[in-house]
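quick one, 434 residues, struct below
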Amino acid sequence: MNLRERIIFPLAGFSGSPGPSLPPAERAARFAGLYRHAFEHSPVYREKYSAAGLTADSIRELADSEKLPFLGKEELGLPGIKADNKATVVSLASGATSGTGVNTQLDRKYLLKRYRMLLGILYSTGWRLGDPAFAFHPEEYGAAALFGKALKEGNLKKIAFDLFQEKVLYGLFHNRKNFLYPSSAFGAFSAAPYFEKLRAFAPRLIISRPDILCALMRQAAIQGLEFPAAESILCVGNILSASGKAALESSFKAKVYNLYASTELGYVGLSCPHSGIWTHVDEDNYLVEIEGGEVIVTDFSNFHMPVIRYRTGDIGELAGGRCGCGREGLRLKIRGRKKDFFESDAGERYYAYDADEFLGLEKELYSLQIGGRQGSLRLAVRPSELPAGRLEDIKARFCGRFGISMEKVAISCEEPLSGTASGKFAYFNLERPA
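---
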């Protein structure tokens, strides 16, 4: 155990390795305890569940979740959602991508638990406290932007928390360097400066949204750049496809891990070297269900601001059985956001996962965005030097892959690429009927 571990492990209550999984009966007891607490102490949940004819004793088994109405993001932001009078240590803002803002409130106990869960994920990749780690973030997540927003709101507690997290915890103890990128990185750019930073720091672990990392990888391949090496890559924040994962592993000679997490819920699932892009659901701490294709999640641990049967807005699939690593249990695959899709002529829906898979097969491209509206789609692609004949070939393959008539699709390498308010690259910029 190194010096950093001797300091951090006792403070966080982390042992350095995951403990044995809980038996189903204990998971059910956790769920029932959370439900009762929310029913008895949260005005929002008490009104919601009473209106559905439920009582404080309605939940005894995990399967009883089907009795409960879903929780929408707009409800998560209601003042009466809190279920105790404990002090909120930090309020985490989310919703810049969807447009529906929410502040997830954590008390001291759950904040420490989330940090233990984060350490468990990082240690699963082979990284240890003190090993160099390199994180790519959009400029919107930079310290200047975040501190400026918090200062404008007069949120001194958030400023203190962010300073401690970035400068002390991540900077000093995690030995992590952040590199900020602009939204223009998905348009015309050179991967060389990004790779120079990576080579100079020589990280053991790269933490990044897969959108920017795959754009860098594809651009570097086009430019003929030499790839820096890393032992592990942790992909967070948005879609990672199977072809994207395979290409990252081949290019960086690294093990690639896929993390499903959110500000509202924490760390729901992590892939292993045998599960591909499917993430192992942390069933000790979360109940994950699929309803109409949408991922529904209950967080067993947040008693301060309960999140029960939360509609994530993500489209996914669940699978059970034994993984190649020997682990039994649920695995989750995310395909994209529920509201972001396009359809074939036959009405089959395709999501960001499908767009990324297609992009991975088009070796000349490093970015693709789908705009317009159903029946009149516009493909915006990069690089911008592609001749008209190549563009028509790409369009033909796109239409053939997804079963769309050629006359319903236009393609351009000049049309601007748009991002989201949170700095994510969006595969979709679609017009939806009001």
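The CA atoms of residues 280 and 369 lie 30 Å apart.
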